[in-house]
Design a protein that fits this description.
single chain, 206 residues, alpha/beta, 28% helix, 21% strand, L-threonylcarbamoyladenylate synthase, DHBP_synth_RibB-like_a/b_dom, EC 2.7.7.87, nucleotidyltransferase
Length: 206
Amino acid sequence: MAAEFIKLFEENPDPRKIKHIVERLKDGAVVIYPTDTIYGLGCDLTNRKAIDKLCWVKGIKPGKINLSFICEDMSHISDYVKNLSTPTFKIMKKNLPGPLTFILPANSNVPKIVNANKKTVGIRIPNNNIPIEIVKSLGNPLISTSIREDDDIVEYPTDPEKIYENFKNLVDIVIDGGYGKNIPSTVIDCTVEPAEIIREGLGEVQ
């Protein structure tokens, strides 16, 4: 069965559509959705079946996945992160929501999610109402990873209709939130002192 194609507006996402998407996520759906950078591939991090399917779509084993979580706000983060230092908290508070991913030391909840000995986790709070409203309604973060274009020039797809054509037989829902960007988030490794930018992306660190 082909994926659903659901149009949402970032300024005011339709609550009924958000509710439907969340119900599908709870049932194990894998969803492609917009962020403040590139389009992401995600699922409910509490649903093992969904994680397995996401890894299948991505072509990787569950234990090998580099975990990033889309969080609603800073309050979610302590559930999955240990030893969050005051300087790191201040940097995150100053820069989120925004187009940045913070690599942090994972606590014991994260290995349980994927049955892997993961020592770190990436945390994102995108400046886009669509994923934020989904996470709010879901009640826990989304596992998130990027989707890539099979193209030597354009690395990340930006057109939701083209994304749908490429992924409609692989995922359960593609959300059309308008054209995405083709530059990923800036990645900051906060497991070292001082914190280090390991990928220059769209976000500038304040």
